[in-house]
Amino acid sequence: MFALIAALVFTGSFLLAAGTIVGMFLAYHDKMVAALTFEPIPQEAPVYRLRISRRRAAPATAQRPARAFPATAFAA
């Protein structure tokens, strides 16, 4: 008896699920076809105009660079 009731519950659940799937397919069939056949409107690719400017190196001067630690600092 338990097996019969379990089989009926299983069959009923299966039919309800299958009916829901078929019903949703029928209700949304047009929208699914429209989504699958949709072709977006082509747009022009953005063009980026960049002006690259680099500062040129200044000519070297005859001046010696300042030392980080003067020699007198270590004489203490």
Structure summary:
Helices cover 50% and strands 0% of the residues.
List keywords for this structure.
single chain, 76 residues, mainly alpha, elongated
Walk me through this protein's architecture.
With 76 residues, the protein is mostly helical. The protein has a domain at 1-38. The protein is 50% helix and 0% strand. It has helices at residues 2-27, 29-36, 71-74. The protein is elongated and about 105 Å long.
Secondary structure tally, helices? 3
**Helicity, in percent?**
40-55%
Shape summary: elongated
Helix-and-strand structural type: mainly alpha
In whole angstroms, how far apart are the ends? 106 Å
The residue ranges in which pLDDT falls below 50 over 5 or more consecutive positions are none
- Portion in strands: under 5%
**How would a textbook summarize the main sheet?**
none
**How many beta-strand segments?**
0
Compressed to H and E, one letter per element, the order equals: HHH
Whole-number radius of gyration?
A: 40 Å
Mean pLDDT: 84
